[in-house]
Amino acid sequence: MLDCKTINLKKGSTGTKVKELQIILQKKGYYDGVIDAIYGDLTVQAVKLLQREQGNSPDGWFGTKTCSKINQNTTLETPQGNTNASGQKFMKDEIIKAGKVFRQHIKNNNNYPNYLEMKNSNGKTYQVSRALYMGIFEGMNMFSIKKGRLPNYVVANSTANNPLCIDYQNNGYNCGPTSLSMCIQMYGEYISESTLANVCGTTRNGTSPASLNSGAKKIWIQIIRNST
Questions:
Q1: Neighbour tally for 31: CB within 10 Å
Q2: Is the separation of the CB atoms in 37 and 15 below 8 Å?
Q3: Mind listing the pLDDT tens digit for each residue in 56-70?
Q4: What pLDDT, on the 0 to 100 scale, is given for residue 160?
Q5: Which of 121, 140, 149, 228 is deepest in the core (most CB within 10 A)?
Q6: Are 25 and 130 in contact (CB under 8 A)?
Q7: 2 pLDDT exceeds 60?
Q8: Which comes out higher in pLDDT, residue 165 or 168?
Q9: Between 158 and 24, whose confidence is greater?
Q10: ∠117-115-31 over CA atoms, to 5°?
């Protein structure tokens, strides 16, 4: 276990403490790089992802505050099967399927799964780490924003800067609550479209900007209370 009282790791740090941190981050699904005892860009990204889920400012520095929270749960999940998914091609339908599993998990457990089981374009099954599947989701979302359609496939080769699982509204007037739900996911929380529709006073005519703003403030206050 890392000694959180004296830990102070950041980009450029090296040594056994960095190696131990990388092993913990990898087994928890945050890190998908080489265990090289060098605090490089991939380690920074992994720590930022961890910090977002903790509700902390994602600065990539692994100090006492971040360390104390990661050590509150020292059970390390070791996935069964092939985990070397970096560079693999995942088709659109498989990503959408994984997204449904992702959303169901956070609904049931109020946290992100460490791994998602996904099949690549050749039908081979992989246990895709949190770092990689967040990058896959972000890749699909950014493509759809730029091109106006979903990509045919995404290659797993990066971690996400803003972990976001794209969602689809259940009717023709819940666009505001659905968008708010996706925004909340970027902070490691999940609140359903229907719950947000009630909070924001959504009707069949939609949601007014003022009501959406008011509902977002109420929800954000509740999230802060639950995290303290």
A1: 25
A2: yes
A3: 788 899 999 899 887
A4: 58
A5: 140
A6: no
A7: yes
A8: 168
A9: 24
A10: 135
pLDDT score of 92 more than 70:
yes
Radius of gyration in angstroms for the set of CA atoms belonging to the chain, rounded to a whole number: 19
Q: Which amino acid is at 189?
A: E
Q: Taking the CB of residue 34, how many other CB atoms lie within 10 A of it?
A: 11
What pLDDT shows up at residue 201? 93
- Assess contact for 99 and 128: CB atoms under 8 A: no
* Total count of residues recorded for the chain: 228
Residue 5, number of CB atoms within 10 A of its CB = 8
Question: Which DSSP category does 77 fall into?
Answer: P
pTM > 0.70: no
Mean pLDDT of 126-154: 83
| Alpha helix positions (H), the chain | 16-27, 41-54, 64-70, 92-109, 130-147, 175-185, 193-199, 209-227
Per-residue pLDDT, 209: 92
At 225, is the secondary structure helix, strand, or coil? helix
Give which of 45, 53, 91, 85 is closest to 69, Cα–Cα: 53
Residues 6 or more apart whose CB falls under 8 angstroms from that of 33 comprise: 22, 26, 40, 42, 43, 46
**What percent of the chain stands above pLDDT 70?**
86
Give the contacts of 167 (CB within 8 A, at least 6 positions apart): 103, 178, 181, 182, 193
Whole-angstrom distance, CA of residue 216 vs CA of residue 181? 10
Element (H, E) at 49: helix 41-54
pLDDT of res. 74: 47
How many CB atoms lie under 10 A from the CB of residue 159? 26
User: Longest C-alpha distance within the chain, in Å?
Assistant: 59
136, 137, 141, 143 alpha-carbon torsion, rounded to 10° = 10
